[in-house]
Write a structure and sequence with these properties.
CATH architecture of the largest domain: 2-Layer Sandwich
Strand content: 15-25%
Shape: globular
Radius of gyration: 21 Å
Number of helices: 15
Number of domains: 2
CATH topology of the largest domain: Aconitase, domain 3
Largest sheet: 5 strands, parallel
Strand order of the largest sheet: 5-4-3-6-7
Length: about 475
């Protein structure tokens, strides 16, 4: 019987099997940051052990770093303590750190791919749920808890039960104004925020294959938002072209050998999945969320559902958002726009927004924040003049970090305010206590910033590639 891509990679990394079916999985790459690593290092100290393979761990500061004045001491006490603790731990255990001021600093799920650290066929973990982003390169990547961070630091292995396999196929051609963020929001809306629970998802189909690597990362990034353990896409020529020549990608003969292996990473034609779904790209509209989980999504031209017997959680969600069943969100006034996060803060995202906003001015009623996903992205944006476009439009162009995606630093949305966000979660208080988050694509965010209200980017706008 044929094997899925997931099965192939998993089998190549099983070191041993524990009684009861749990596998000891070897981890190729371990990313850490300032929030979920301190207790793990304390555990190593308590046991008097070192990091097993320090060369396979990469650290960066991203979650609650400031996005202004990064060359100055961090003002917020907890943030400063966490970043300083990460620095001290990396020095003590001999780990590579891309801290503030380093040219490679940025959101962990942005810097791994852009530096060529992330590669097809790998197993990758991080104490962050959106580690699934790296699956866009055809690898098994998933988030882990702090105790598991310690486990990987100590052994370079992880005890894991093997998930079931799901394939989601999207075929066809997307409408103008519809991008990868809309694809994944549509899928999650169809399957619900728990529809992938217990599964690792492979994305396939002509619509997926047509996407750039950065667009594929957006898809895999939000796999976790439907409850899946992670998501992956088979590597192809698009993958290889993206990786070639990157800082830590294989070079010379090593590159040729790597390509030969990466070409074996695909799902066999006769392979069986535990569950399959098929969607048509033409059915997908620009998407927005209306509730407090990413599965509560609708096309911008649709209305909030009116279930016959709404659950208490559905009512609570709409109450929090100040909305009602049957409402249309098209035309709704917005207070904040956040363009950033590990979902949509790469160069293609920033170019998409700049191309749309060039020559336009934001609404006076809206505060707009653009936060690049890494220092390299920021410098490239400046080199291309995108920072000028943003500033002329009235946008606040900041330094790299997770920022208002989760509001762990000063970048918060005020209580009761509505924010169109290109991030991945719209939970209660995610962007600040009482903040109301509406998830959308960079294009939808750009249009909202100009109009001051939610608009359908397919109507009355000139869209460029």
């Amino acid at each position: 019987m044929g094997k899925t891509l997931f099965d192939k990679i998993w089998a190549q990394h099983v070191v041993d099997q524990v009684e009861g079916g749990t596998d000891v999985l070897y981890i190729d790459r371990h990313f850490i940051h300032e929030v979920t690593s301190p207790q793990a290092f304390d555990g190593l100290r308590e046991r008097g052990i070192d990091v097993a393979r320090p060369q396979q761990t990469v650290a960066t500061a991203d979650h609650n770093v400031p996005t202004i004045n990064q060359d100055q001491p961090i003002r917020e006490k907890l943030s400063r303590f966490q970043v300083d603790t990460l620095t001290q731990n990396c020095e003590a255990f001999g780990l590579e750190l891309y801290g503030l001021g380093h040219p490679y600093q940025g959101i962990v799920h942005v810097i791994g791919p852009e530096l060529g650290i992330t590669r097809p066929g790998m197993t990758i973990v991080c104490g962050d749920s959106h580690t699934s982003t790296h699956g866009a390169f055809g690898c098994i990547a998933f988030g882990i808890g702090t105790s598991q961070v310690e486990q990987v630091l100590a052994t370079q292995c992880l005890l894991q039960a093997k998930p079931k396999r799901m394939r989601i196929t999207v075929d066809g051609i997307l409408q103008p104004g519809v991008v990868s963020k809309d694809i994944i929001l549509y899928i999650i809306a169809q399957l619900s925020a728990s529809g992938g629970t217990g599964y690792f998802v492979e994305y396939a189909g002509s619509a997926i294959e047509s996407l750039s690597m950065e667009a594929r990362m957006t898809i895999c990034n939000m796999s976790i938002e439907m409850g899946a353990r992670g998501g992956l896409i088979a590597p192809d020529e698009t993958t290889f072209s993206y990786m070639k020549g990157r800082q830590f990608a294989p070079q010379g003969e090593a590159w040729n050998q790597a390509i030969d292996y990466w070409r074996t990473l695909y799902t066999d034609a006769e392979a069986q999945f535990d569950k399959e779904y098929h969607f048509k790209a033409e059915d997908i509209s620009p998407m927005i969320t209306y509730g407090t989980n990413p599965g509560m999504g609708i096309g911008v031209d649709e209305t909030i559902p009116k279930p016959e017997n709404p659950s208490a959680s559905f009512k609570k969600s709409l109450d929090y958002m100040g909305l009602s069943a049957g409402d249309s969100l098209e035309g709704k006034s917005i207070d904040y726009v956040f363009i950033g996060s590990c979902t949509n803060a790469r160069m293609e995202d920033l170019r998409m927004v700049a191309n749309f906003n060039k020559g336009k001015k934001k609404s006076e009623e809206v505060n707009v924040m653009v936060v690049p996903g890494s220092r390299q992205v920021r410098e490239q944006a400046i080199a291309e003049g995108l920072d000028v476009v943003f500033r002329e439009a009235g946008f606040d162009f900041r330094e790299a970090g997770c920022s208002a995606c989760l509001g762990m630093n000063e970048d918060k949305v005020p209580k009761g305010a509505y924010c169109i966000s290109t991030s991945n979660r719209n939970f209660e208080g995610r962007q600040g206590p009482g903040a109301r988050t509406i998830l959308a694509s960079p294009l939808m965010a750009a249009a909202t910033a100009i109009e001051g209200r939610i608009v359908d980017v397919r109507k009355g706008f000139e869209l460029t590639e």
